[in-house]
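For the sake of transparency, this paper describes our internal protein records without simplification. The tokens are whole numbers drawn from a learned vocabulary of local backbone shapes. One such record is reproduced below, unchanged from the form in which we store it.

. . .
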Amino acid sequence: MPKDELSTATFAIVDVETTGFDPKRDAIVEVACLRMRGGAIVDAFSSLVDPGRPIPAQASAVHGIYEADLRGAPTLARLEPRLRALVRDAVVVAHNARFDVSFLPCISDRPIVCTMRMAKRLVDAPSYRNQDLRKSLRLKVGSEGTRAHRAADDAYVTAALLRELLRRYARGSAPQSISGLIEMIAIPIR
């Protein structure tokens, strides 16, 4: 377990693009992980992934990744050691974390923060989709973050969103700890 203080926590922001929505039937075609400490990205990793199965046309239409793009790409099994190293001693963060982590069981033993659930508690927004929150909150993201539904770009947007949500969370009276944050996020949304 990482240290419980939010101010000194290391976060591993993950995002995946997949062949579909069912982790039992579908597979990852792209994965990204950003390691963030003190609000700064200290390590970044992104790779296309050979899913070992065809990519349905409707999935390619969303993320723009086609089978030809994946020729020579590594399998997820080959990438798992790098992912485990990036999340070691970190809190895993994802936007709609239930989805991303369901495709990455190799990192599911870490504490997990979902920025979508966090945003629903801290922000009044017309939409809680990652890129929509980027626009409505006017988050500063460099050239990374401009292509929705690409793993690295979405991870950079999630990192910017996490910075803003942590700033808002710190203004409240909730415990300034990872465990306090996770407990707040776990409260059912009405």
